[in-house]
Amino acid sequence: SPRWNGLGENIHRPTFSPGGRASMTGHGLRSAAAAILTVCACVSLFHGASAQRTRGGSMARRHSAVVSSNPIPDTLYQQLQMLETRRAAAPTSFKCSNCPLEADGRPMAVRIMFMDVAPANMNPAARAAATKLGRDYSCDDPKLAVPECFVWSNWVEGWVGEFTNTFLKELNMNVTALTRANFSKEVYEVYKGGSSYTRCVWEVRLGNVDLCSGDFWETEERRGIAPFASAMDSDVLKLGTLSLGASTAIRLDSIFDPFTPDVWAVNLCMIFVSAMCIWLVETTTEMNGDFEDQLEPHKRLTWYQGMSKALWMGMMGYVSGGAANTTTTWPGRFILLGFGWFVYISVSSYTANLASFMISQSSAIGLIDAYGDISDRAGNLCLLEAIEGMVKTPGVGKVAYDDYIPAIEGLYAGKCLGVQVGRNEWKTIVRGGRGQGSICVDPADTKGHSSCPDPDGQVKKILISGCKCKDPAIADAAECPKDCPDHRKYCSLLEINDEAFAFYMNFALPVSKRIQDYVSAWIISLRQEGTVQRLKGKWIDAVTPDVCGGGAMEESESQSLGIKAMAGTFVISGAFMVVGLVWHAATLCMGPKRGADRAPRGMFDEAAPKGVEGEFVETEFVDGEKRSARPLSQKTPDDVWGGKGAEMSTAQYDDICGKLSEHQKAITQQGRVLERTERLLAQQEGQLEQILSLLSDMPSAAPAPRKAKAAKAPNGATVAGASLGGAYPSIESPPLESFSGSPTGGASPKRSSAEDLASSKHAIGAINERFPAANSNASGEQTPGAQNPILGFFQQAFPPPK
After folding, report:
1. Count of alpha carbons within 13 Å of 500, Cβ hemisphere only?
2. What pLDDT score does 499 carry?
């Protein structure tokens, strides 16, 4: 082949020979063919560029997601353009504006079906048009739908509708709006169920719809039918039942409601374990008096007595809100710290939750109290058809419906004991009293869905809100129950808070594969910006207040604390107890080895050396036997009070303890003697009061002179107070004839009070004159009668027998 230099000259000039003319001819033909192809290519490029300028296109466009299925282009320019379009078909980000596009650059044509369900999707323009025409509003009924239902830009209300409208404006696609009135005949052949949401997913599968707009649950069944975009939000399913009114029964077990049974069981285990740990650690030290016999000092309790007392102290500590044990070791203190933490959190949680139970309106009773009651009573659960496969609880029957209002009506009809409702619908339909729907009441239909299989079947409208009384003067629908029987009727539902009923679902949009990436990118971006939560607050929380009010129908927010809520408390308390036990085990293992190197730390410290005066050890060995704890080096009491300070042996120690015990018994007996003496003195005081009362009734006649020798009193007669002045005659048998009137015993004449008082003084004076020595004894000392006039009088009147 020829070689050319930079100037286009052939540096290898051919040499001609007789046989070389034919080779020159072939080379010329090839050069001519190449020239012709070059001219054709230039002409094609010129015509292609003219056509592109005529369409107003630009080679710089890079937005195309779908490769055209047209035949192979005729021109070379179209081939190059297709290659460039394919290279640009994978954008760096699917969050783009004015995309995706068709192959010719036009906006992609898509078909979107809008589910007309509040508060997800709403069309205010179509509702206004239906009201203007004087007909009922419904975009799902082909007979009632107005043209405004099929304009995608009119679906601007609702948290899903406004969300969808936001990214559709950015994508700028050519949208054709559809509703449930546009379901194809083909979809009814492939799907026989009653859920219109699942039917829309099948429309995406069949290629009739590119996107379904609504609050769709992303279930396993639907995922197998068609693709879904990224999740918009999550839904929490609630369990509701029909309220039967307020409960008037007295529940003695209501005090246990703040905790679930498993928490109470763990609490008892914690008390038992902590008590056993305290006993195990503290029973080995003599310094702890909790495990000593109170009746016999210096005697330790037996193992079963110690364990019983430790358990009793643990129970007392739990119910009193503080530890009742005492500790003398660091391992015991750690165990007690763990027990104190457990008591603090447990008692605080119980008190707070008990107060919540007391003030909450949870006294309403329903058909069931928990999710397990359905299976116990072999009942049914009303739920949506979309999640029928998720509920697999044994013993729970399932009655599936296509919408929430038919499901709740099934509960009111007695078909179920409970109903499953989404969180948003519970706020709007149940507690907010907003919404409307329909239910098939045709006799030939047994399902009771929102629509009848027969298009001509009888359908009943359920107006939770929006009903108007026939009397224009009545504005509130609650005042005309005959005209609006369904107005806020679901306020009688009661929510059941049960951890066993825990179902969560994602809200996602069914979408075709050709726009799945673009829709998902915009959903992720808007969700990260908080658009979803803002729209839910705008279209649900802000416009749906709780219109059901309080009373017995109000849902109960109080629920028992489960084991998960208290797990942290148990773990922390158990950790402290484990540390204490490990520390105690380490002390037992390492204590004897290092005991000789450290100083003693207590009266019964086993590390104290035996030969140091004034120190103590825990045990001693006598004849090779280890005896109970005794101080081996202890100064005698004489040394304490200035004695010699000699050491005390074990026998001396036992002897002193015995003498102290006897002395204690003697003190106790003396105390009993003093008590008896006090009782005797009290009796004597009562007798003296009786004597004084007799003195006040004495006659005023002067006593007759007595003989020089007084009559001898009966043997053994004494008076009260004999211990003070000797033995005296008893007051029951004194010789009172000299004071009772005449010597012969006759009645004395009546006298006045003044005369009686004068006579009494005269009689007392005469007695004192007759018995002057009664106030002194034989030695001339004063007797008790000299200091006590009353006692002196009786000593003179009734001298003691000789």
Report:
1. 13
2. 82
Q: Percentage of the chain surpassing pLDDT 70?
A: 64
Residue range 410-450, pLDDT digits in tens: 999 999 999 999 999 999 999 988 888 889 988 888 888 88
User: Nearest CA to 339 among 96, 581, 29?
Assistant: 581
Q: Which among 240, 246, 548, 199 has a CA at the least distance from the CA of 410?
A: 240
Residue 685: pLDDT over 90: no
How is residue 12 written in tokens?
């290898």
What SS3 class is residue 177? strand
Which pLDDT band holds residue 601 (cuts at 50, 70, 90)? very low
Residue 283 pLDDT greater than 90, yes or no: no
- Computed on alpha carbons and rounded to an integer, the radius of gyration of the chain in Å comes to 55
Residue 258: is it exposed, middle or buried by C-beta count within 10 angstroms (0-12/13-18/19+)?
Answer: buried
For the segment 656-680, the average pLDDT, to the nearest whole number, is 84
Q: Which residues contact 379 (CB under 8 A, 6 or more apart)?
A: 368, 373, 396, 397, 416, 417, 418
- Token look-up 């005369």 returns 755
Residue 90, token pair as written in the block? 């994978």
Q: What is the residue whose two structure tokens read 């043209």?
A: 147
User: DSSP letters of 152-167?
Assistant: GGG--BSHHHHHHHHH
735 contact partners, CB below 8 Å, separation of at least 6: 711
Contacts of 627-632 with CB under 8 Å at 24 or more apart are 628/298, 629/286, 629/604, 631/603, 631/604
Burial of 779 (0-12, 13-18, 19+ CB in 10 A): exposed
Closest by alpha carbon to 513, among 197, 187, 228, 165? 228
User: Which residues make beta-bridge pairs with 510?
Assistant: 228
The Cα 490–Cα 269 span in angstroms is 44
**0.85 cut: is pTM over it?**
no
Instruction: Give the model's confidence band at 102: pLDDT under 50 very low, under 70 low, under 90 confident, else very high.
Output: confident
* Contact by Cβ (8 Å): 484, 477: yes
Q: What are the C-alpha distances in Å from 457 to residues 441, 449, 450, 452, 655?
A: 8, 12, 11, 6, 109
Cross-strand pairs, 436: 463
Asked if 379 contacts 617 with a C-beta cutoff of 8 angstroms, the reply is: no
Phi, psi of 376, rounded to the nearest 5 degrees? -65, -35
**Residue 1, both tokens:** 């082949």
pLDDT in tens, 748-787: 444 444 444 444 444 445 444 544 444 444 444 444 444 4
- Are the CB atoms for 463 and 439 separated by under 8 Å? no
Could you tell me whether strands 380-384 and 418-422 are parallel, antiparallel, or unpaired per DSSP bridges? Answer: parallel
pLDDT digits (tens, 9 = 90+) for 366-405: 899 889 999 999 999 999 998 888 888 888 999 999 899 9
Contact by Cβ (8 Å): 160, 197: no
CA 283 to centroid of chain Cα atoms: 37
What's the CA gap between 651 and 663, in Å, rounded?
Answer: 18
Instruction: List C-alpha distances in Å: 51 to 46, 60, 62, 68, 72.
Output: 9, 16, 19, 19, 17
In this structure, are residues 232 and 524 in contact, taking their beta carbons and an 8 Å threshold?
Answer: no
Q: Could you tell me the pLDDT band of residue 89, with boundaries at 50, 70 and 90?
A: low
- The answer to whether residues 160 and 116 touch, using CB atoms and an 8 Å cutoff, is no
Q: Measuring CA to CA, which residue among 515, 466, 501, 295 is closest to residue 383?
A: 501
pLDDT at residue 517 in the model: 93
Q: Judge whether 492 and 242 are in contact, CB under 8 Å.
A: yes
Contacts of 646 (CB under 8 A, 6+ apart): 635, 636, 638, 639
Of residues 85, 72, 80, the one with CA closest to residue 49: 80
Q: What was the pLDDT predicted at 88?
A: 56
